[in-house]
Every structure is written in structure tokens, then in C-alpha cells.
Amino acid sequence: MSETIDIILLEDELEGTAAKLSHWLVDLGSTVKSGEPILELETDKVSMEICAPASGCLQEIIKQPGDNIEPDMVLGRLASGNQNIDQSPSKKNNEDSAGADRLLSTNSLKGQDLIGPAVRKLVREHSLDISQISGSGRGGRVTREDVMTFLQRPEATAGCTDFTTHLVGKRIPHSPMRQSIAKHMVESLLHTSPHVTSVFELDMSNLSEHRRWHKKAFAEQGVKLTFTAYFVAASVAAIRAVPQVNARFHDDALELFEEINIGVGTALGDRGLVVPVIEGVQNKNLLSIAEALQGQTERARRGKLTPRDMKNGTFTISNHGVSGSLFAAPIIINQPQVAILGIGKLEKRVVVREIDGRDEMLIKPMCYVSLSIDHRALDAHQTNQFLSVLVETLETWGC
Questions:
Q1: 12, 67, 86, 379: which one is catalytic?
Q2: Which of 151, 80, 146, 160 is nearest to 116 (CA)?
Q3: How many Cα neighbours within 13 Å face the side chain of 281?
């Protein structure tokens, strides 16, 4: 005898973040195994897979792509065993309005309901009024050919404004991640923190040599040694010199943290940006930092981060130089933190050094490092002291 099992998103899986159903990974009626990913959610920070709570057949899909999801909400139902899906008319009448029978029952439908997703997209791209288009499909359904024919008529553009007749655009809906990034950036820069940025030059000669000598040994342990790992480690020394950087601003006090949890901005291409956090960096050596950084970065690129992976950060690093940027100002602070470190592109430059009392021109691997601060919490003195310690730590690494 089969049993119906609800597919529920538990509260601790979201950890307080908003979520939207991205898409189902299996079709209605498909057989799944316990623990197999069956749907994907997109929060304001990560995409996450939800797995089947038991083995069985996907009997019912309750929530559709694009629906907002809250904890303890039933997303769908599984039938344990091999129970067949009820395809009776009474069952279909109770299904979500997106069911196939709804598209064929035309008596109660308006013109805009008689189109599929592809046609709806075409109508939206051309800013058309679907009620003006006659459908030639089954039951009066508007087809792609109907839309293309309508576009050839003068009345198709008669109601458009001047700029839409000259500019044909394509609207791409914002993902929850992009909406969250936009909201956070505006809030941080315009409404919360007065940003100020200081920039130092960094000679990467010793660092490059140290990495060249040690990356093979790290690789033998399955760890990739990146320059970012050095910057994370050096940030600990700089924070110890200027603890106000590892803090949170309140109206009546500056809250300093003993724990140093450093987030590293990770670009996901057109999908946006995430900031996975390495916790307890003050207790880690270079190897463990590189290992943690590699793990977080790989999970971010595969879309496997959880909301927990991006919580409790106290300081953030943005290695924008990996995409060719020399420096960026300001780099917007990751609220509610009070500072963010920027790392520019590593490139060889001609620099002047005094050698035996004479100025000499040398070619050195150089980069710019910047610290954008919340001027409510920090001043130029602390900012420049932080960067001075950071630069000295990195330039003398291994000496």
C-alpha cells in the first residue's frame, strides 16, 4: 500500500532568507530515490537543491517555478512505491491553474491566457496587447505565427511611444540574487555608510617567489595555492594591528569582534556575486586557509553554497584584479561590516628604488591594494595603518 509524503522545505534550510522556486529537476510521474535532487530554489544569495525526502513517484507538483517559498510550505507530494498518478477529471480540476486542461478549456479564458510561454515572451518583447491579436490555433489560441503576422500590420506599432518605435529592447527579469545585490549596494553606498577609499602599492616579488616554491607542495596535498590565500592570511596581521576594521558600527558604539571571519567575493559570471565566508581565520595557517578558500570557491562555482556558508562575516576581500581591473573605488562595503579590501591586477611595472644611495629603475610585479571604509567607524589614520601593515606583511613574506 502506497503512502503520500509531503515535500517540505524546513526552516533551517533557508536560515531566514527569501527563496523562489527556480525549477523542478524531475517531471510529474517520475520515479525518484531518497536523497536525489528534485527541485532547485534560488535565494537572494545562492541556488540550492532540495532532495527527495523518500523514494517514490512524484505524484503532485504544488508550487510552480517563480513562486515564493516559505519554510514548512508543501512544495509537492511523493507517492511511495509505484502508485500511478490520478489523471481523473476531478483530480485535474483541483490542480494548479497551470494544468494542461486549463489551456484547452476556452470558454472561460481571456485572450492573454491562450498563449504558451514562447508566445508570451514574444508578446512581451514587442510590448503588444494580446487582446488585439486574433488566434488561429486550437480554441482560438494565439500562435507564434499569429504574432508575427500582427507585427507586419501598421496598427502593431501605432500605440507605441516614440522611443519604443526606434529602440527594440529585451527585458530580462532580475533573479532574486540580482535583486538582492542591487538592494544591498544602494543601501550600503547611499543610505548607510559614507565610503572613503585609500590605495597603496604592493611589491609582489617575495610573494610571487614564495608561491612559486611552495605551490607544488600544496598541490601534492590537493590544495591550490592562490595569491588570495596570502591576502586572507595577511589581513589577520593587519586586523590585529587595527582591530577597528573587524567591527560593526552601532549608533552608540563600535562593536569589535575577536573572531576573524573573512568573506571572499566570488564572481558567478552573469549570475551575480556571492561572498562565502572562511570562519576563524585567526586560527588557520596558510595551508588551511588555502584549503578552505578552495572548497568555498568550488562550491560557489557549482552553486552548492548554503545560506550558512555566507553568514557571520566580519571582513571582506574583493580580488577584482582577476578580471583585469587595476583598482576600483569605492568597493561597496558588505553591510553590516565597516571595511572591504580590494586587490588589483598583478602586472609588471617599472619602479624606482634607491640602491647604494642611487636611484635605480627596476621591473617589479606590482599591484594596487585598497581599503574602502565606513567613515563613521574609521578615519584615515586607521585606514592607512591597516594598509601599511598589510603591505609590509606581504612584501616581507618568507624573509
A1: 379
A2: 146
A3: 32
Q: Is the confidence at residue 191, as pLDDT, over 80?
A: no
Per-residue pLDDT tens for 170-180?
888 877 777 77
Which among 286, 287, 278, 288 has a CA at the least distance from the CA of 315? 278
State residue 80's pLDDT score: 81
Q: Is residue 107 part of a domain?
A: yes
pLDDT in tens, 90-103: 344 444 444 433 33
Look at residue 171 and tell me if it is in a domain: no
Considering the domain boundaries, does residue 342 fall inside one? Answer: yes
Q: What are phi and psi of 46, to 5 degrees?
A: -140, 165
Q: Has 375 been annotated as catalytic?
A: yes
The 10 Å CB-count burial string (b at 16+, else e) for 352-390 is eeeeeeeeeeeebbbbbbbbbbbeebbeeebbebbbebb
- Helix, strand, or coil here: 386? helix
Question: What is the number of structural domains in the chain?
Answer: 3
Q: Which domain holds residue 88?
A: 4-93
pLDDT tens for each residue of 112-122: 444 554 566 67
Catalytic residue among 184, 359, 375, 381: 375
pTM for the predicted model, two decimal places = 0.62
Task: State whether 181 and 298 are in the same domain.
Answer: yes
> What tens digit of pLDDT does each residue of 359-387 get?
999 999 999 999 999 999 999 999 999 99
Active site residue 309: no
